[in-house]
Specification:
- By secondary structure, this protein is mainly alpha-helical.
- The C terminus is likely disordered.
- It has six helices and two strands; from the N terminus they run αααααββα.
- α3 packs antiparallel against α4.
- A two-stranded antiparallel ribbon has the order 1-2.
- The chain has one domain.
């Protein structure tokens, strides 16, 4: 079990780091929204694309912070029955909790399997590493070629106001659910009471 904990520790670190990145995105989003409020109220010139930025940022925030939420057992769930069962039948409650985590692991794995081709397809529309079928060919200037490639990417937003490539958001989703799948897998093996899984002061369930 100790070797399993050591193998699991890097995934814990990645989840915590992703959560920190999601927190940074929150602060940036707050800054953008405050700037838009000031621009509207003071200069009567609202920032363009704020709605699109909010939508894109929410995707990043939710999925970057989800693995750490799962790791620390803060994912919303109805565990009243487990709490009652733990007092009288701890073995049964532990087994049922692991069964729920196993189902969640399978579910996250299915989402990863579904989203991976969508991410690849979206990323390949940019033609970062392959010459495009249409449009200008690579010039050898890295920055100019990257700018041209990003312009080719599948995007969301409103042309002329704000557009952003879809693949970073889809990558965040794939990364998040894959990491959640791994965390749930270790929860099944180690249990929710493992000290690596639960922060000090967290509820055991």
């Amino acid at each position: 079990m100790e070797s399993i904990r050591r193998f699991y520790s890097p995934f814990v670190s990645v989840a915590i780091f992703a959560n920190a990145v999601g927190t940074v995105v929150i602060f940036l989003l707050v800054a953008v929204m405050n700037a838009d409020v000031v621009a509207r109220g003071v200069f009567h010139a609202p920032l363009k694309g704020v709605v699109e930025v909010v939508i894109f940022s929410l995707i990043l925030i939710v999925f970057l912070q989800l693995p750490d939420v799962v790791r620390s057992n803060r994912l919303t769930r109805s565990d009243g029955f487990l709490v009652l069962a733990e007092n009288r039948f701890p073995g049964f409650a532990n087994g049922l909790s692991r069964l729920i985590d196993a189902a969640a692991c399978i579910f996250m794995g299915l989402i990863t399997w579904t989203m991976w081709p969508e991410f690849i397809e979206s990323f390949e529309t940019c033609h970062f590493f392959t010459p495009p079928e249409f449009g200008p060919v690579p010039t050898g200037n890295i920055f100019a070629d990257l700018q041209t490639a990003f312009a080719r990417c599948e995007y969301f937003g409103t042309p002329g106001i704000f557009t952003a490539p879809w693949w970073p958001a889809k990558f965040a989703i794939v990364f998040s659910v894959a990491l959640c799948c791994i965390i749930f897998f270790f929860k099944v093996i180690l249990g929710n009471r493992n000290p690596v899984l639960v922060d000090k002061g967290d509820s055991p369930l």
